[in-house]
Amino acid sequence: MMRIGIADYPLPHLDEPVPPFMGQYQNGHTKEWAAKIGSFDGFIFVTPEYNHSTSGALKNAIDYLFAEWNNKAVGIVSYGSVGGARAAEHLRLIAGELKMADVRTGSPCRCSPTSLTSANRSPEPIRTRRWPRSSMRSSPGAPHSLTCANRTALQA
Length: 156
What we know:
Low-confidence stretches: 125-156
CATH architecture of the domain at 1-7 and 42-118 and 149-156: 3-Layer(aba) Sandwich
Order of helices and strands: EHEHEHEEHHE
Radius of gyration: 16 Å
Strand content: 15-25%
CATH topology of the domain at 1-7 and 42-118 and 149-156: Rossmann fold
Number of strands: 6
Oligomer: single chain
CATH superfamily of the domain at 1-7 and 42-118 and 149-156: Flavodoxin domain
Shape: globular
C-alpha cells in the first residue's frame, strides 16, 4: 500500500476546459494526477465529515478524473462526531457514479475536535464488525480495527 496525500498534489479548483469523462486533460497537474491514480488497482479513502459530506479537497481531487477511477475497488474510513457515516455514504454515491466497486463495511471513527488536536490522544474506532479468522487468511496481518487520521488522505 502507498499513501497519497492530497496536499502533495496541489490541484486548484477544477480548471480543465472539458469534462473529465472525455479524458482530454490539458493541464500538467491533471496529467500528473491522472497518471498516479491510473497506476493503482484500488483505494482506501480516509475522510472527515464536514456538513454531512466529505471534505472539499477530497471531492475536488476525485472530480478531476473519471476513467482512472473506473472498475477499481474502494474502501472508506470516515471520522467525525457520528463516525463520519454521512461522509462515507456520500463517497459511496460518488464511487458508484465513477463505476467503482465499494466495500460496504466501513470503519467509522468517533472523533471530537479535542481528540483530533490533542497530541496525547488518538481517536478510537467504532467497532462495526469483527471479521472471522477465515476471512483474514487472504490478507495476512490485516488489522481487526483501524484508527482514523488527523487529516484527509487518499491511500492506494
